[in-house]
Amino acid sequence: MKEENRQYGQLAYDIVKHAAEKIGSRLPGSDGERKLHDYMCGKLEEIGIKPVKEEFAVSPRAGIGGLPYAGYFGIIMSLLVYFALGTYQLWFAMALAGICFLLWLVFSCFLYSKWLDMFFPQKISLNSYGELVPEDGNYDYTIILSGHSDTSWTWRHSEHSYKHKDKPILGLLSTYIKVGFGAVCVFLIVGISIAMAVIYGSMLIATTFGVDETGYSFKAEWAMNMYNWAQGVTSSQSFKVFQFILHFLPIVTAIGSAFVAMWNDPHGENASRGAMDNATGIALSYATIKYFKDNPDKMPKNCRIIDMNCGSEEVGLRGSMAFTQEHKNDGMLKNCWNINIDSVADKDYFEVVIKDDWQGCRFDKDLEKMFKESFNELGIESKTKGCIHNPVGGCDSTPMTRAGIKSVTFAAQNPALTYYYHTWRDMPDRFEMETVSQGFDVILSVIDKIDKFQQENGFNGVNH
Q1: Please, where in the chain does CATH 3.40.630.10 lie?
Q2: N vs C: which end of the chain shows fewer Cβ within 10 Å?
């Protein structure tokens, strides 16, 4: 940590403490989230920057926030098996429901699509930001410093692993075993329903559309093949054994589905306090813009800097999506760089996130290189070697990158599932002010490199 930057590191850490201890949980679209926006807008006004608020609609339970629905769905499907064993037509309804469930899971929970949001209750979330422009008012490009304001529902299985905090491998195993078992059970019962519908549906279609008026000979070879296949399955000894197993298997899948149903604690007051994730991002973005406000001589040449507080990241990047949609045609995103800051607390895990695997989005290689060079210059050693992919979920760099902005996400977070990640135990007393301050040093270093790059090369667009 550079001594001359200590005051800004302390400022950032004080904001983190206020967000986690005074405001607390900040679920998407909640009063807590709005309180943090109001607080940060007040901080911008204190240094003479006019804040702007932009509201947007969000459906918190439409995506990842609704994962417990997958557990409830698995429990209901498990119970319906006992009725379907006596009334085969029920398999068709169960299969249709299973297909709809898989579509929701893939598009809303995995790919963060907004297509199905309309079917879930909506709330109003918001983005807020302030701009710092050069004293002469002229600029050629923009740097957006962003962090998300909201927090997640507490992940119960992660929080339960706190008892293993001194032996994190045990906590990791206990969490993944429960979640993995639950996921297998949900997909298994959905798969069984679809398979049974295919078997009985084949017989039904064949006997309905493939038999002539005598009721014995088939008109079409495809119908005969379908009928013979289904008859072979249902008359086999293996199928009879499988039907017998179905009298007991739903008990197992219901228990496993219950683990998925209890994944998110439904009570807002128990939600994550969000010190690391992501009051650190909000605080460091503000500390950086204040630094340049206090030191206009150190501003990057011909550069505008925006401090952005992004709402509803935890339910599918909704705030960054809304921001890029709102400003795609007004020039704000032209020649634009984005340093997205998300969770800077674990001193042994400084890293740049270069890709969202689930979203299929690779971030900017120029910024990636700048962060790695900054880590080396500041003597930062990381157990992740300074670079990771985001294996599940997504971060706000994805909508930014897709909007033509050069973006990466900066983090200092243990990428393994931990007792404090997305739980109410995410509090500032777990980490040190010096770690946050070191994050501040990294950001200043990268901004210097952006300045040099811009003067030498201009804006060259997203480099994948």
Answers
A1: 3-60+123-154+270-457
A2: C
Q: What is the pTM of this model?
A: 0.91
Which parts of the chain have pLDDT scores under 50? 213, 216
Give the integer Cα–Cα distance in Å for 309 and 262: 30
Report strand pairing: 336-344 vs 141-148. parallel
pLDDT value of residue 210: 59
3-state secondary structure the chain: CCHHHHHHHHHHHHHHHHHHHHHCCCCCCCHHHHHHHHHHHHHHHHCCCCEEEEEEEECCCCCHHHHHHHHHHHHHHHHHHHHHCCCCCHHHHHHHHHHHHHHHHHHHHHCCCCCCHHHCCCEEEEEEEEEECCCCCCCCEEEEEEEECCCCCCEHHHHHHHHHCCCHHHHHHHHHHHHHHHHHHHHHHHHHHHHHHHHHHHHHHHHHHCECCCCCCECCHHHHHHHHHHHHHHHCHHHHHHHHHCCCHHHHHHHHHHHHHCCECCCHHHCCCCHHHHHHHHHHHHHHHHHHHHCHHHCCCCEEEEEEEECCCCCCCHHHHHHHHHCCCCCCCCCEEEEEEEEECCCCCEEEEEEECCCCEECCHHHHHHHHHHHHHCCCCCCCCCEEEECCCCCCHHHHHHCCCEEEEEEECCCCCCCCCCCCCCCHHHCCHHHHHHHHHHHHHHHHHHHHHHHHHCCCCCCC
pLDDT digits (tens, 9 = 90+) for 342-377: 999 999 999 999 999 989 999 999 999 999 999 999
> What is the per-residue burial (b if ≥16 Cβ within 10 Å, else e) of 43-74?
bbeeeebebeeeebebbbbbbbbbbbbbbebb
